[in-house]
Design goal:
- GO terms for molecular function: 4-hydroxy-tetrahydrodipicolinate synthase activity.
- Keywords: Lyase.
- Belongs to the DapA family.
- By secondary structure, the chain is an alpha/beta fold.
- The chain has one domain: TIM Barrel (Alpha-Beta Barrel).
- It has 13 helices and ten strands.
- Strands 9-8-7-6-5-4-1-10 form an eight-stranded parallel β-sheet. A two-stranded antiparallel ribbon has the order 2-3.
- The chain is globular, with a radius of gyration of 19 Å.
Length: 335
């Protein structure tokens, strides 16, 4: 675990490689229970079978808004237990976002005690008074904890911090060392780097990595939270091979691999089902049922209740058809 005082030096060396954002497998009537065996299997698959060096726990893909505090705490504990058994050097990232600062504090203190390396706080999803409110939120947590903190700037919050607002939080809160920029606005990430050049930035718009931003030091060599396990299998390490080329600064080779392997086309074929609900097309979401359906196609356990908990809708048949077709075209499942 990185303490608050050591967070920034730690982040620049430790945050590297593919970080898997874990879904939460549900079971029972209405998905009221968690399938712990399935969750343990998912952790082992990501860390042992795929060899990914980081986990991202209880965040948007994991449907944190639908989980109790006790469930979120146990999910983190199990990920640490299973993950570190497979790889003692595993970097565990805990999302401790909550609408209430007190709930966020409970989760962040637990992450510190449980042995997570860093806690990420997504911009609060309700009643956020701009950057001033988010700064106050971070200060409240940092004054009561001693763990590295990261920002998660996602449009699913309903409010996206500006580069100046993010840089101010970094300047005033020493424990803050990294940010996942999830709004797909690379120009803002570039400006943020100019304002806070030592902040570790992961830009979700993958095109910037092909444009040499890693070489330029604008972005970091880590995927701070993504579903890498949905883009490859142990027999076909498509994402790992692509990412290794990026990190090795073999950008032309990476672009060729993206095209020739089918990864580029896969993004097109999948459509927006994982991040967009058609009934609310202007809102960015993490559609848990979509992630779990894709995982099930690859043979991963998702529990006997494969849907999201409320308030998310069930994944429609059209989505399942399109996602399955995309996987068949990529060749990760049989035609």
């Amino acid at each position: 675990m990185a303490t608050a005082s050591a967070a920034r030096d730690w982040a620049r060396s430790a945050l590297r490689g593919i970080g898997d954002s874990l879904y939460t497998p549900f079971r029972g009537v209405d998905g009221d229970d968690i399938d712990w065996d399935a969750y343990r299997a998912l952790v082992r698959y990501c860390v042992a079978d795929l060899g990914h060096p980081m986990l991202w726990c209880t965040s948007g893909v994991g449907e944190f808004w639908s989980l109790t505090l006790a469930e979120r705490q146990r999910l983190l504990e199990v990920a640490i237990e299973e993950g570190r058994a497979a790889n003692p050097n595993l970097v565990v990232q805990a999302c401790t976002a909550a609408t209430s600062a007190k709930d966020c504090l409970v989760l962040t203190q637990h992450a510190q005690q449980a042995g997570a390396d860093i806690a990420y706080i997504q911009t609060p999803m309700m009643e956020t008074h701009g950057g001033d409110g988010v700064l106050r939120f971070f200060r409240y947590i940092s004054e009561r904890t001693d763990i590295a903190l990261g920002m998660f700037n996602s449009p699913s919050s309903g409010y996206v911090l500006s580069p100046a607002e993010t840089a101010r939080i970094y300047a005033e809160i020493p424990a803050v060392c990294a940010t996942k920029e999830g709004a797909f606005r690379p120009a803002s990430s570039r400006l943020l780097h100019e304002l806070a050049p030592d902040l570790v930035i992961w830009e979700c718009d993958k095109t910037v990595y092909r444009a040499g931003w890693l070489r330029a030091g604008i972005v970091c060599p880590a995927q701070l939270g993504t579903t890498g396990y949905l883009f490859e299998t142990p027999r076909r390490r498509l994402l790992t091979e692509y990412w290794d080329l990026i990190v090795a600064d073999k950008l032309v080779e990476a672009m060729d691999f993206g095209r020739e392997s089918g990864l580029d086309q896969f993004d097109v074929d999948m459509g927006s089902w994982l991040t967009c609900y058609p009934g609310r097309p202007d809102y960015f979401t993490h559609w848990g049922g979509g992630f779990k359906y894709a995982a099930a196609l690859l043979g991963l356990p998702v529990g006997d209740y494969p849907h999201s908990r409320p308030p998310q809708a069930e994944l429609p048949a059209a989505a399942r058809t399109q996602i399955a077709t995309a996987y068949r075209r990529l060749g990760l499942i049989e035609a």
